[in-house]
């Protein structure tokens, strides 16, 4: 049977997700947005590409939550992106209000879906979505780690002049300036990264990865990155829909893993037909552990700020 993916938010990432899902023939697509005409226009435009490319995919644009009924996957990008000079945390108050509306719409119309949040500030928005919707924690995850890891691998590939596909790596922790590239888990064609790059160069690349989103915002002036974020979201949706059981760095609910309780943060997660099926606990060096804990602390602080805005969180 054909699968169904609903995209809540038909902006830059939502539209790109719809196009990627169509070209991969992953599922029928519902593009939902409060700005109904944008959702309708993008759905129609992409639908008109299917006869050129020969895909059998149905797309609709809507502002009616009933249209998302029985979705296999829901990907949420509804919200406001950063402007130059803003941090992800500056979006907290406005995007919390939006995620509350979205959670109510999803809970009422498609509570069995696997939900991937992309809206920033990511770790808190995914947490808020889970609390507001009451969906099981294994069915609610956040996309950030795949994007952060992909940026890190790209910068390394440029510096070391090796194809990105030869690089294995992981970026964990919160999706912010304290994210932690796992250096001991980074291998170039199977060889440890530390043997292949000078420390000063590596530090520059880590810094650039942490500011990877801001670098793009500065170029674009209006809006933030959308191609790589959408590609990352699709990888998670595909692993769920096809039960690929890929281990992917995602924001997942931590219930004691990595010594963290009642918080979403970036860790390696097996994504298969049951959603976030397993959190993989890798061994961290003492330096990695210290950096990971610092990153967790920033997520916990932002969660406190969110609770000051809404005590129900
Ligand atoms: P944008 O192009 O502005 O699209 C957002 C869409 O959300 C707009 O079309 C709005 O009309 C719509 N919207 C607003 N309120 C609602 C609502 N209540 N219900 C439904 N739709 C609504 O932004 P974008 O697509 O570039 O980015 C979307 C979000 O993703 C932002 O919060 C970004 O900060 C975030 N983002 C996250 C990452 C991560 O790696 C986690 C990367 C890039 C962007």
Major sheet details: 6 strands, parallel
**H/E element string?**
EHEHHEEHEHEHEEEEEHHHEEEH
Structure classification: alpha/beta
| Average pLDDT for all residues | 96
Helix content: 40-55%
Would you identify the CATH architecture of the largest domain? Alpha-Beta Complex
The distinct ligands, each listed once, are: 3-acetylpyridine adenine dinucleotide
Number of domains: 2
Break the fold down into its secondary structure elements and pairings.
Elements: E1 4-8, H1 12-23, E2 28-32, H2 36-47, H3 50-53, E3 59-62, E4 73-76, H4 92-109, E5 114-117, H5 122-133, E6 140-142, H6 145-160, E7 167-168, E8 171-172, E9 180-181, E10 187-188, E11 191-192, H7 199-210, H8 212-220, H9 227-241, E12 246-255, E13 261-272, E14 275-279, H10 286-309
This protein binds 3-acetylpyridine adenine dinucleotide.
3-acetylpyridine adenine dinucleotide (A3D) is lined by residues 8-14, 33-35, 38, 77-82, 91, 95, 98, 101-102, 118-120, 122, 143-144, 147, 175, 223-226, 229.
């Amino acid at each position: 049977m054909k699968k169904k993916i609903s995209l809540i938010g038909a902006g830059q990432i939502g539209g790109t997700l719809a196009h990627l899902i169509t070209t991969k023939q992953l599922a029928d697509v519902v593009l939902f947005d409060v700005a109904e005409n944008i959702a309708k226009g993008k759905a129609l435009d992409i639908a008109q590409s299917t006869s050129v490319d020969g895909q059998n995919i149905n797309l609709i644009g809507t502002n009616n939550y009933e249209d998302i009924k029985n979705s296999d996957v829901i990907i949420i990008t509804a919200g406001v992106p950063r402007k130059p000079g803003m941090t992800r945390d500056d979006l907290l108050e406005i995007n919390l209000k939006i995620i509350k509306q979205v959670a109510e719409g999803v809970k009422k119309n498609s509570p069995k879906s696997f939900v991937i949040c992309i809206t920033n500030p990511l770790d808190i928005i995914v947490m808020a979505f889970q609390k507001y919707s009451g969906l099981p924690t294994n069915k609610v995850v956040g996309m950030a780690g795949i994007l952060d890891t992909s940026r890190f691998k790209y910068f390394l590939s440029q510096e070391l002049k090796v194809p990105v596909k030869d690089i294995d790596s992981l970026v964990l922790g919160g999706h912010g300036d304290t994210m932690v590239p796992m250096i001991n888990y980074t291998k170039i064609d199977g060889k440890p990264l530390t043997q292949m790059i000078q420390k000063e160069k590596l530090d520059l690349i880590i810094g650039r990865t942490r500011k990877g989103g801001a670098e793009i915002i500065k170029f674009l002036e209006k809006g933030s990155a959308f191609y790589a974020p959408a590609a990352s979201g699709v990888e998670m949706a595909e692993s769920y829909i096809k039960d690929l059981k890929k281990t992917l760095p995602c924001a997942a609910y931590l219930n004691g893993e990595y010594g963290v309780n009642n918080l979403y943060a970036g860790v390696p997660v097996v994504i298969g037909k049951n959603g976030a099926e397993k959190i993989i606990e890798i061994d961290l060096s003492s330096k990695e552990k210290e950096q990971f804990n610092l990153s967790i602390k920033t997520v916990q602080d932002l969660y406190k700020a969110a609770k000051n805005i809404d005590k129900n969180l």
